[in-house]
Amino acid sequence: MTRNAPRRAAIVGGNRIPFGRAGGHYAKASNQDMLTVALDGLVARFGLRDERLGEVAAGAVLKHSRDRDLTRESVLGSRLSPATPAYDVQQACGTGLETVVLVANKIALGQIESGVAGGVDSVSDAPVSVNDDLRRVLMELNHARTLGARLAALAKLRPGQIVPDLPRNAEPRTGLSMGEHAAITAAEWEIGRAEQDELTVASHRNLAAAYDRGFFDDLVTPYLGLNRDATLRPDANTAALARLKPVFGGAGGTMTAGNSTPLSDGASTVLLGSDEWAAERGLPVLAHLVDAETAAVDYVHGGEGLLMAPAYAVPRMLARQGLTLADFDFYEIHEAFASTVLSTLAAWEDKAFCTERLGLEAPLGSIDRTRLNVAGSSLAAGHPFAATGGRIVATLAKLLAEKGSGRGLISICAAGGQGVVAILEAA
Amino acid sequence: MSSSMSGTVSNGPGGRVGSDWYRTLANSPIGGPLGQLGLPRPAALRRYRPGQPLTDGPVLVGTAGTGTLAQHLLALPGLESVAATEPDAALGALVLDATGLDTLAELAAARTFLTGALRRLRPSGRVVLLGGLPEQAGDVTGAAARQALDGLVRSVAKELRDGATANLVLLDAAAAPADVDSTVLFLLSARSAYVDGQVVRVRAPGAAAGPAEAPGRLAHTGRVVLVTGAARGIGAAIAEVFARDGATVVCLDVPAQGDALAATSNRIGGLALQLDITAADAPDRLNEYLLGRHGGVDVVVHNAGITRDKLLVNMDDARWDAVLAVNLRAQLELNAALLGGVGGGDAPLRAGARLVSVSSTSGIAGNRGQTNYAASKAGVIGMVRALAPTAAGHGITVNAVAPGFIETEMTGAMPFGTREAGRRINSLHQGGLPADVAETVAWLAEPGSGGLTGQVVRVCGQSLLGA
Q1: What is the ipTM of this complex?
Q2: Preferred mutation among B227, B259, B265 to probe A, highest tally of A CBs within 10 A
Q3: SS3 sequence, chain A?
């Protein structure tokens, strides 16, 4: 039978490990370790041992050169059938959501019946490479065919070449860190310190409450002694946050270590399938992926903020779906920084931005803030770059399944001026 | 609950965690003098491996009294019999039909049969006596003769050596011969390695018993089995035995044990369910999961248990409440939800379902420093006995196993003296394995075990504690 009419891919469930603090519980765990164990937790939850899935798509932002086929290697180390194909995806912090879109699209087209999307990142086991000078000498040595050529190459070795290249959380084209970029945007949108701290407290309280009511019992599997996200502070309060010194935007800045996401380690996975595939196995369908959109902005010369791409992606997707910003029961806006969420919301409420930059006739509108990140988000959970998309998709899908109806909006900003957004609808 | 519900760890059925150095020494070439010193010689018990013969040697079947089960027993699948006319053959087991035993003369005949054959019993041999219920005897003498079998079998169990066991099966007059099959086959097999000196009552199964077993099929093929506290130890072994015998096994444990739970589940090809069974909404969530994901459940094994030892004079609310909550209250509440409206379509327990609880010999004999634990485990026995008659209408059985000293990480962490005493004060002079408990649970849960309900079967090697 040929399937040409697209169908909506079902989100069956998810599994992630608790996110760890950089240099903490997962200091000695590799990306492959974490992705493999996240896959195995998913296998255990849904009884997928030895199952051949359509594919597994995952990725990491900080990646060792040895992890060339990170996802395939993780599948081979997992309990899934080794006949399950896999590939790596890399789109900065959009990686996780992009893998969901890729797998869902193949399911929608009938090319596959099931798949896993996911992501992993470690800042504790990050790749450190030899610097370019030394690398050139080593490559020359490698290619040398005669003793003389080898000696000539070796003669180029210098003490300074020992200094390694460390991965940097900075944009190659601006030299600014992501936080410095976000601080510029926060200042442009006049986002205050207090509202950032309030958003941060809400994230921690919501995440803690979700853990306390068992919400994550079937979404998270402990790993290496960590049962909950290491950066979660259930007792977070604005008074304590107000005492923190700004870390981005200079002395007068509003962004602190408290209202910025901590560097984290972790992995997440999402199980997707066709409705038929799920039904055959007695598996639940929590939600369907309705649509997705990726946008990019020119943050180098175009005067737009590095992390503002979702502000462009969402209106385009809403227009295509005939929806308004108010038509959602849940909003999952990735908290790269509290100011990023608030800048995005401010932009959608701003007439000038919406008419001049988005080409709309009126502001996109505002959202009911009680529907924002109701089970916590990255400020509390942490943000292992490529793992965030999977965390959010599984969380939102379960929120929709609990409610039994409605739809949710996902918005994830990414380095390189990109943003990935999506709509889920209750099954 | 942030701590383990299972509390103990195994390497799965057949795996060993506790290192019984003494048993190893006693069975080594240099261990001979130990016997001359009068010290016990713990045998290496024959344990179940798929495909192995039912018994290690032929079975001699005899009759004392007017019982008529012998022909039925001889036809049991896998039973290799030997004629009484071959007096020299070494025996794997002795089976005596004493269901029609009602006089002291017939009791003497039972003694004669055993005396003549016991010497021929091979290591890890089996003695299985079948008797009638004393309360169903026609007269006082009959009741006395039937009850006498109890003392006879328990004493034989203590006299047997080399890992051999003796158990008594009391058959209700209303039961059919086939109702005893699952029990006799279990007691004859290596699956009952650590069940010794026990008395099991078999009644006629209740209404709507499970479907008849297809010959040659694994005992639990196609059934959905829930095991609580399945991440480690005895629970993991139980999950593994059910998976081996063909079941779809849902392995449940607290979220904090999730990584070990996932490993166990993936090892046996089961499903992991992270749930704190003491949570207020746990019964609802469990019902929803079982109905939504599996359309119901055939076997529920309440294995989850914790210890918080303290002398009663020092016992605080936290220790008492935590142990009672996990070990007893959760079972009561889950059973109420599982059974609620059975047959009405909204309860997950299917007709012919099996509930098996893991109690403890501590709940029978008491244990110093374990008032909370022993109270909870005794409470489980009370629960099982009270629930059995009410569940019988749907062919559902409710039973408990009471493990004695089982070699786990928990017992491995005991002080040396306590551990050695615990290991040796039973007729087999050694601790049992998690798999021994698991095999016993699986037998009680078999479709063919519908005649067993309201029972507490000890898996203790005939421990002196609480005997």
Answers
A1: 0.91
A2: B259
A3: CCCCCCCCCEEEEEEECCCEECCCCCCCCCHHHHHHHHHHHHHHHHCCCCCCCCEEEECCCCCCHHHCCHHHHHHHHCCCCCCCCEEECCECECHHHHHHHHHHHHHHCCCCCEEEEEEEECCCCCCCECCHHHHHHHHHHHHCCCHHHHHHHHCCCCHHHHCCECCCCECCCCCCEHHHHHHHHHHHCCCCHHHHHHHHHHHHHHHHHHHHCCHHHHCECCECCECCCCCCCCCCCHHHHHCCCEEECCCCCCEECCCECCCEEEEEEEEEECHHHHHHCCCCCCEEEEEEEEEECCCCCCCCCCCCHHHHHHHHHHHHHCCCCCCCCEEEECCCEHHHHHHHHHHHHCHHHHHHHCCCCCCCCCCCHHHECCCCCHHHHCCCHHHHHHHHHHHHHHHHHHHCCCEEEEEEEEHHHEEEEEEEEEC
Which among B257, B266, B275 has the least Cβ separation from residue A44?
B266
Would you call B255 and A227 a contact, using CB atoms and an 8 Å cutoff? yes
Q: How many CB pairs under 8 A join A and B?
A: 71
Encode chain A (427 residues) as per-residue pLDDT tens digits.
555 678 999 999 999 999 999 999 999 999 999 999 999 999 999 999 999 999 999 999 998 888 999 999 999 999 999 999 999 999 999 999 999 999 999 999 999 999 999 999 999 887 777 778 888 888 888 888 888 888 888 888 887 777 777 777 788 899 899 999 999 999 999 999 999 999 999 999 999 999 999 999 999 999 999 999 999 999 999 999 999 999 999 888 999 999 999 999 999 999 999 999 999 999 999 999 999 999 999 999 988 999 999 999 999 999 999 999 999 999 999 999 999 999 999 999 999 999 999 999 999 999 999 999 999 999 999 999 999 999 999 999 999 999 999 999 999 999 999 999 999 999 9
- CA-based nearest residue in chain A for residue B265: A44
Cross-chain residue pair B255–A40, CB shorter than 8 Å: no
pTM for this prediction = 0.92
State how far residue B14 is from chain A, nearest Cα, in angstroms.
Answer: 23
